[in-house]
């Protein structure tokens, strides 16, 4: 099974570049369930890699429910993360905050 998944992962590496909602949704599901598979197989580096990919896709698609699922999965894995993995996680969250700040409507400041 692992060999088949590895082959499929290599062939699907470019799927994350698609921008249409349907492909993003399918690729998100693939990445998320692959992260769960690796977590259950106690392959935590792989689980974390796929979780991070899922998190990026959930953010890219604007799907808050999927984003929450990824956050929850990362928190389950947090006890085993390396400093580098924690840094990558924080980078994704920082990107999300930056985008959210850009999407806020401008407010008029009175008396300034």
Describe the structure.
The chain is mostly helical and 112 residues long. It has a domain at 32-101. It has 5 helices and no strands. The longest helix is centred in the C-terminal third of the chain and has 21 residues, at 83-103. It is globular, with a radius of gyration of 16 Å. The termini are far apart.
Overview in brief:
About 75% of the residues lie in helices and about 0% in strands. It has helices spanning about 1-10, 20-40, 45-60, 65-75, 85-105. The longest helix has 21 residues, at about 85-105.
Describe the secondary-structure layout.
Elements: H1 2-11, H2 21-40, H3 44-61, H4 64-77, H5 83-103
Helix pairs in contact: 2-3, 2-4, 3-4, 3-5
Task: Give short descriptive properties of this protein.
single chain, 112 residues, mainly alpha, 5 helices, 74% helix
How many strand elements? 0
Measured on Cα atoms, how large is the radius of gyration?
16 Å
**Average pLDDT figure:** 82
- Straight-line N-to-C gap: 64 Å
Number of helices: 5
